[in-house]
Amino acid sequence: MKLTKEQFLGYVDHSLLKPNLTLDEIRRGCEFAAEVGAKAVCISPHRLGIAREILSGTPVIIGTVAAFPSGAHMTEVKAFEARRCVEAGASEVDMVIDVGALLSGRDDMVRDDIRAVVEAADPAHVKVILETHYLTDEQIVRGAQLVSEAGAAFVKTATGFTPTGATPHNVALLRQGAAPLTKVKAAGGISTLADVIAVIEAGADRIGISRTQAILDEIEAQS
């Protein structure tokens, strides 16, 4: 598989989630996303004002996160955060599941937690992070099924804050478990063009990545 720059950027959620990013770095990241034509940015909730200022009027989708990165928040707090993010200008919200509930076999808790955020964030799209590093293959498939049952738009591999995340194997498992209309976002550990191609071929519809410029440089070098 060979990707053009335009094709690659159509998958990219340019990640601006590192907690040590300065305000100037956030601003430059949003400007970069607009300049190159990334599909979206994914930015921390308290920086949505910067994203809205720079990206309003551009095709770049403004995305943010809720219950990030642990997912260990009360459901009502997750839902409140998601609603406030939408009010602050986000069109997409990436939430983290109750990982411990999934590990405990409490599918009802996982499903209800996701559904509450989906309802609170409406009409924004919700992407649900499973943190696949902690899960067995069976749990990854089951988690993806629960995401679809709860009505979320995407199921996502990882926050990027765990040792592993978007392997082609895990992406394929998400695609296997999710309903056909549920999209798959690969994030966590994607650092090269080869990584990007591998997760796309495994079924990813969107890619969360901070090394967007480095991948663009790789594509340029191959042309």
Description:
- The chain is an alpha/beta fold and 223 residues long.
- It has a single domain (5-222), classed as Aldolase class I (TIM Barrel, Alpha-Beta Barrel), CATH 3.20.20.70.
- The chain has 10 helices and 8 strands.
- It has helices spanning 5-9, 23-36, 48-55, 75-87, 99-103, 107-121, 137-149, 168-177, 193-202, 212-222, and strands at 12-16, 40-43, 61-66, 92-96, 125-129, 154-156, 183-187, 206-209.
- It has an 8-stranded parallel beta barrel, surrounded by 7 helices.
- The radius of gyration is 16 Å and the shape is globular.
- The two termini are 14 Å apart.
Provide a brief overview of the structure.
With 223 residues, the protein is α/β, with parallel strands linked by helices.
The residue-averaged pLDDT reads 97
The strands making up the biggest β-sheet line up spatially as: 1-2-3-4-5-6-7-8
The share of residues in helices is: 40-55%
CATH architecture: Alpha-Beta Barrel
**How many β-strands, per DSSP?**
8
Number of helices: 10
Task: Estimate the strand proportion.
Answer: 15-25%
Into how many domains do the coordinates divide? 1
Q: Assign an overall shape.
A: globular
Largest sheet: 8 strands, parallel, barrel
The fourth-level CATH homologous superfamily is: Aldolase class I
Q: What name does CATH use for the topology?
A: TIM Barrel
The low-pLDDT segments are: none
Task: Describe this protein with a few key phrases.
223 residues, alpha/beta, TIM Barrel, 8-stranded parallel β-barrel, 47% helix
